[in-house]
């Protein structure tokens, strides 16, 4: 089976700080790095390193070839990434403090310039048994989700950054919604908990995660593995990508949750987002040492 991912591609500019700045405050950076990011690229890399076949649907500028090269090195298929001469590659300014908390500013660039016709062409082979992953950092979300659902594919939508109107547009076509606890509360306040989807994947940070199977009424819970975090950027993307890869591989939700929790635990012990995603061998080795 194949995971198609309609997702953002960003260049992450990461600044290490003693504390996050307050309004009007200027703080000198302790360190600066540049890396691969964007919720879409992060999830594609996570799923590919989990062992899934991943085709990324997205766009970037005509510069920055190193970004596509890193996706390819992570075994993500990139032939369906549009290179746009009139748009810059998306980028993010990420501030990370010494407690591993972060604040992020995103410029979408090419991520919001995707063309419906090109996406329809890229999805012509999707079918039953395949998965479409999506996040709220591109345009053409509802249109692409509708195409995937009509083809019989599973649609996993990460409702982040959280906005209710894009979510409402995608909801009729979604199979699983992936949210953190804050996003879930915002959704429930707007639409209630009786949602027209098969399941809810809700992450709770250091308190673990849960998968609510809305077809059976069963809730699967997974505690977080205790590690020393140095950077939480991309942890939710790591979790979602690994969970999607687990379902694609035929794992039950409990197993997919456990593997995703282990992957996210490893990811937060490293600096960076997409570049920090662990591979399957690393996750299985980590789990051998867990109760």
From TrEMBL:
Catalytic reaction(s) noted: D-ribose + ATP = D-ribose 5-phosphate + ADP + H(+)
Cofactors required: Mg(2+)
EC number from the UniProt entry: 2.7.1.15
Residue positions of the active site: 237 (proton acceptor)
Biological source species: Paracoccus sulfuroxidans
The record's free-text note on cofactor binding: Requires a divalent cation, most likely magnesium in vivo, as an electrophilic catalyst to aid phosphoryl group transfer. It is the chelate of the metal and the nucleotide that is the actual substrate.
Example of a GO cellular component annotation carried by this entry: cytoplasm
Name of the molecule in the record: Ribokinase
Pfam families in UniProt: PfkB (PF00294)
Residue ranges annotated for the Carbohydrate kinase PfkB domain, each copy included: 6-279
Entry binding sites for K(+): 231, 233, 267, 270, 272
Ways its activity is controlled: Activated by a monovalent cation that binds near, but not in, the active site. The most likely occupant of the site in vivo is potassium. Ion binding induces a conformational change that may alter substrate affinity.
Gene3D superfamilies the record matches: 3.40.1190.20
SUPFAM superfamilies, sorted: Ribokinase-like
A single MF term (Gene Ontology): ATP binding
Subunit structure: Homodimer.
BP term (GO), one: D-ribose catabolic process
